[in-house]
Write a structure and sequence with these properties.
Structural class: alpha+beta
Largest sheet: 13 strands, mixed
Mean pLDDT: 76
Distance between the termini: 46 Å
Number of helices: 9
Number of strands: 18
Radius of gyration: 34 Å
Oligomer: single chain
Shape: elongated
Strand content: 25-35%
Number of domains: 2
Length: 397
């Protein structure tokens, strides 16, 4: 779409002009309707659009075109429901089912006369016809959409009336704010909630079932120089200075503990595993710095908990590590379906300009709760992996 066309349908400009349309047209339209039909109907302005009338859709309409000079026209479109509503109220209920394509000459004259009456009252709002040569942008139009309904509250029937006016014949007033404007300096400390994604990888159900504490899961789809920050479904790339303290040698990546010898076809099925930090609080000032390419020191995130998820289900948690040139997670907690996490705010101080506060899950500890480590509980710890969390279609097997 060209820039000229985008400007011609500017939503921002119509927002500034909305009050002028709302205060100018509805009183005249309602007064005209009351005078023509008596106070039987209420008309309310519900929409203003330039060039594109998205509220019209595919509805059948009774259309009246009125010429203004030799170059311009004003259109009145009444939907079939509106025509039926008016005719039923004025002429009484018809025995036949209403069909806008088969209205009588009398019925058409009632609707046309109403449209002409509206025009006579609205034309005083139009600017004088331009004397200069007609140009393409003079064909821009403003669509005003009104809802019409019977005055009685118990009657829920409604219709729509569209009034289309050449934009060049209107001189709307835009709102001009006299109040003090906000500046960027008013918001830098305001916080919002963000998600930070480490990466993702494919994992077999067999390997997931055999995950243990101290295992390291390496995410092939990750980049040690970048993380993905997500706020309100918008994603930003966070540039990082990796912390050398969390590098571990490649031979300690836990790979030897993972077996590819799945005992059956079910265990060999692969699912996508993602790693993300728990909810992070970030200030708008920090967010702006990130958008401007700020490089964040990884120590601002390192101490925060990372959760491993499959199909949206949390299966384990741990700490961020770097193996070779990829991010990984060193597992310190295996989560079973019965585990309940409660988030408590924890703050960490970065080495750079960014300060992130996180909600780090605190997991229940058997000693703190006073549980006895009896034989029955030790047996429960050895229960097999619960496949019920992951629904798989037959076609994937």
């Amino acid at each position: 779409m060209s820039e000229e066309l985008q400007n011609s349908i500017s939503t921002d400009q119509l927002c500034k002009e909305y009050n002028w349309y709302q205060n100018t047209f509805p009183p005249i339209v309602q007064s005209s309707c009351n005078e023509f039909f008596d106070p039987n109907f209420r008309m309310e302005l519900i929409g203003i659009s330039k060039n594109i009338n998205c509220l019209l859709g595919d509805e059948s309409c009774f259309v009246t075109k009125i010429k203004i000079g030799k170059d311009y026209e004003m259109f009145f479109r009444l939907t079939a429901k509106t025509v039926d509503l008016i005719l039923t109220k004025i002429l009484g209920q018809s025995k036949a089912k209403f069909n806008i394509n088969k209205i009588s000459e009398l019925e058409a004259k009632v609707i046309t006369s109403f449209n002409d009456y509206l025009f006579e009252h609205l034309k005083g709002l139009l600017s004088p016809l331009p004397q200069n040569e007609l140009k393409r942008n003079n064909f821009d139009v403003i669509h005003l959409t009104f809802i019409i309904k019977e005055a009685e509250e118990y009657n829920n029937k409604t219709g729509k009336v569209f009034i289309t006016i050449p934009a060049v014949l209107l001189k709307p007033e835009a709102i001009v704010s006299n109040a003090d404007k906000f500046s960027e300096e008013d918001f830098p400390n305001t916080e919002t909630i963000a998600k930070v994604f480490v990466g993702k990888t494919r994992f077999s159900l067999f390997d997931i079932k055999n995950l243990e504490c101290e295992d390291v899961v390496v995410f092939e789809n990750s980049d040690i120089e970048n993380l993905q920050l997500s706020i309100n479904d918008k994603t930003f790339t966070v540039k990082l200075n990796p912390n050398m303290d969390i590098f571990i040698p490649e031979e300690e990546d836990g790979g030897e503990q993972m077996s590819s010898n799945a005992p059956n076809i079910w265990d060999s099925l692969e699912v996508e595993m993602v790693a993300e930090f728990d909810a992070v609080k970030i200030s708008l000032g920090e967010l702006k710095s990130i958008e401007n390419g700020l490089v964040v020191d990884l120590t601002s995130l390192y101490d925060n908990n990372v959760t491993l998820k499959v199909e949206g289900n949390a299966i384990a948690s741990g700490n961020l590590v770097i193996v070779n040139d990829k991010y990984g997670v060193k597992i310190n907690q295996i989560l079973t379906p019965g585990d309940k996490k409660s988030a408590q705010p924890v703050s960490s101080n970065p080495a750079g300009d960014t300060e992130l506060e996180t909600n780090e899950p605190q997991y229940e500890n058997s000693e703190e709760q006073g549980y006895e480590n009896n034989e029955e509980e030790r047996e429960n710890e050895d229960e097999e992996f619960d496949y019920s969390d992951f629904e798989l279609e037959d076609e994937n097997i």
